[in-house]
Amino acid sequence: MSDVQHHPPPGHVAGPDGPWDEVQERIEETGRAVVHTTWGQWLTPALLDPGLRGLLGRDWPRYRQRPAPAGRLSFAVSRVVVKHTAAAALQVPADTLDLAYLPGGRPVLRGLGAELRVSLTHTDELIVVGVSRAGAVGVDAEPVGRRVSFELLRDHVCTAEEAELLAALPDTERTDRFLRLWTLKEAYTKALGQGMRRRFAAFGFRWDDAGGAALAEDAAHEWSFATHLVQGRFLVSEAHRREEPRAEVGAPVVPVPLPEPAPEPLPDARIIGFPGPRGSGRR
Fold this sequence. Notes:
CATH architecture of the largest domain: Alpha-Beta Complex
CATH class of the largest domain: Alpha Beta
Number of strands: 12
Helix content: 25-40%
Low-confidence stretches: 1-5, 245-271, 274-283
Number of domains: 2
Shape: globular
Strand content: 15-25%
Structural class: alpha+beta
Mean pLDDT: 84
Order of helices and strands: HEHEHHHHEEEEEHHHEEEEE
Largest sheet: 4 strands, mixed
């Protein structure tokens, strides 16, 4: 089963105006889609939108209360990207969607959680959003050049088998593959709604001859995974649980509109493989 076939590279959306056709096509064909962008590309159109407060909805107070300007702006833009991506998948106006959070921070669409699952990750200037009408979804990203200590983190992230495989690799290759494993585990636990609350060393991955990842404990193949190199410098991993769509894919969903808020003045991608035993491939 090819990751390329089942998980095409995340699509790039340059701003609120899209393009969104690819998201709609992927939702219609597979029930899920993943997009990436940078907060700088969305910053001006998002902040100049007179409807920003209504678009942020319940996140407006959190946006206003953040003390650091950079954190405030990236928070607002990431939520705007989530809303527009979900709106493209559901074919509804973005400002009719109500974003809420489960314990642990997992974002959900209030009243539409059974219709569309969402996942958000951001690192540096990158923002990645996954949406799915066909099962749980989780996404995670890390810069390729991030410096991490394998020796310090191996017991927290790796099973014994994973640690043994990674320990046998040269330093640079080990770091790259360790980051990929880390993002896969982040994406999986996000899809479960557990995040860092589940110990990463408690579950492991196995690798096929083509470098595809699968859960070692997933005999029924309920989960599928992929990792892509995005913008030439970010690893983006995605996790999807295979389920039948809960509603007819492509059928518009009409949520209840939110109350009008009171006015207030505003102050290139490629697939990554992970070899199994030596000689089985290169990512």
